[in-house]
Amino acid sequence: MKIVITGGTGFVGRRLALKLLEKNDLDFGRGQGELDSLVAFDVGEADPPFPDDPRLETVTGDVTDPDQLRAVITPDTDAVFHLAAVVSAGAEADFDLGMRVNLGGTRAVLDVCRELGTQPRVVFASSVAVFGGLVPDVIQDDTHLNPQTSYGAQKASSELLINDYSRKGFVDGRALRLPTVVVRPGKPNKAASTFASSIIREPLQGDRVNCPVGEDQAMWLLSPRRVVDAFIRAAEMPAADWGPHRAVSIPGITHSVREMVDALTRVAGQAVSDRIDFKPDPAIQAIVSGWPMKFAANRGRDLGFEADDSMEEIIQGFIEDELGGSFVS
Amino acid sequence: MKIVITGGTGFVGRRLALKLLEKNDLDFGRGQGELDSLVAFDVGEADPPFPDDPRLETVTGDVTDPDQLRAVITPDTDAVFHLAAVVSAGAEADFDLGMRVNLGGTRAVLDVCRELGTQPRVVFASSVAVFGGLVPDVIQDDTHLNPQTSYGAQKASSELLINDYSRKGFVDGRALRLPTVVVRPGKPNKAASTFASSIIREPLQGDRVNCPVGEDQAMWLLSPRRVVDAFIRAAEMPAADWGPHRAVSIPGITHSVREMVDALTRVAGQAVSDRIDFKPDPAIQAIVSGWPMKFAANRGRDLGFEADDSMEEIIQGFIEDELGGSFVS
Fold it and tell me: How many CB atoms are located within 10 Å of the residue B162 CB?
């Protein structure tokens, strides 16, 4: 059994790769089997390096180049997890780059998979950014696609391609609209959502951090553990379970910043959450307040996708997975 | 004032061109003006030829070729009506052609317009085929995009591009989801909807015709006159009227085949409608019965778009516009 992950050295791609390597009962519709080969395809090498595993290979390349994709998405490929993307702020700042990578890259992956003639499973990382404009307070499974960012437009167009390539029998695709993933490790990035991880991550390591949005601001959240589970579940579900629509909003939890901070206090103590300052950044606040924060996600639940039980669970998972089980109290 | 129509020698493009040439008070956001130049860009020459008009030029070319587009969409272009497309059945039969023309063509038109730096109005012919799968009985303005054909997927993706290019200020775009246009002149084509025109057109010219679907089958209809009015209205509306969503379902009328035939009887007499046979074609019936047939279209009405008053009006318009005012009774 062979798997390719585009964006395979990124934060989610890396964790997905490591989790897949642990599995010995994967089933992508051709019977259970063991993983023989996993290619992490990305623009850069894994940092830190992946643990040694003879089944795992990192290949650096450009996801928009069909020839480079053909070299890794070979006829023995059972599943492709397509995570490679220019992030939201990047696609907004450089429109052409976003179109090339986020829409063109998806098209290239789908076309190379189609050439195989084997109808491989393709699991695509979509986003709640496909929703926007005038939407109901609670996003429904059939709320219209009306993205208000180039990133969202590229993800929404990619979903439409996933649907149509699947309907035509070229691939067996699935698209997951992911909540904001917290807690991300490492440094803050340029995403407007980066504070949602920072306000947990930095205080647990003894550092002060500023929260640029008000305590009332709510967000739609999912942990890295659950994201990885969702990708694997999506890849293993039979095609028949999806019906005429290959996209699904993955269940998350809606938490205000205040609820996130309260959970941090319960897990790690008042001294830790006291390391958070609240100096508003109107630019960040304006972006974040436009994001949908509540989703019915009934279809996702019906399909067996699971949200985290609580913010405490998310924080505990971060401490275990990324901080070696301890924090600076 | 200069206008370019892609698909400009097709049935709707031709009528739009002729109507625009009659107008002397067009306003595409830069003040009222007279039309100096209209380019009908298409794969083939107009047939029959356009009437002589020094302002009108037909240019044959490929809508996916940026260089050919640049030759017609020049910096003095105020508005582009982008109608060029591979039809539904054609895009389903030849996936690559449909992707190239219906998605790639839209992308090329938008990119060439963007290069101008003048934010021209772009009016795009979308389709109710962007809806499908599990939808409510009456399609709402915020019903989700879930096309079940490649044509619909390409139109839906194009709508997303129109939205995003407009949001970014590259163009000032508008996308019209058009009902089935009846009564089309000429010969039946390969579209599954062709019978909706044939059952009116052929009997009025003394010919027998078969209706391949049951009398109960309903459709969502708009006349050529109203389609042309909708395109011009859409092009003249201020950007502010559109808000954060540049696509709109154009109001139509829902009529069953029986209601269409009854209207034909009232307009032209029983002898004319007796020329319709009803031999069902299960393949056509299967396709047509999957089409949405009722639309709230509240937004379209709010924006001032108008459906036909009746099927009789549609039939009378056809007799006047295409049959020289008379029919074979």
Answer: 26
